[in-house]
Amino acid sequence: xxxxxxxxxxxxxxxxxxxxxxxxxxxxxxxxxxxxxxxxxxxxxxxxxxxxxxxxxxxxxxxxxxxxxxxxxxxxxxxxxxxxxxxxxxxxxxxxxxxxxxxxxxxxxxxxxxxxxxxxxxxxxxxxxxxxxxxxxxxxxxxxxxxxxxxxxxxx
Length: 156
Description:
By secondary structure, the chain is mainly α. The protein has helices at 2-21, 24-34, 36-41, 46-72, 82-95, 101-120, 125-139, 141-144.
């Protein structure tokens, strides 16, 4: 039952973030990411947009923490461990940080790789995830999932 509750909260949060990304506020946040000086020249408040971004991120992190405590029925100091934040960063790198689906796809991919690799090599699963990340950085996300383009001369 907790998994359905978690999926419902994920769905609501994703729809809400999608609405925000495609709103004028979201477009101004994308403009802030691309060129802060141009946003200032347009007369928009850079500090106000930054405060909105950090407030939204804190609200989502708080909702995730509350969801963890509700679904597990227990909250300990282990949730503040470095490995937890490193797992989140790895999931974001795997999925891609520039688009809304990146975190979701990265989290699914990271958990699948973690479960499958820890079954095969319980002690060295982090090595294989690290090797995958190195390949991802060297080859690129677009080319990694299209192997026929690995040896082409034109790099895009």
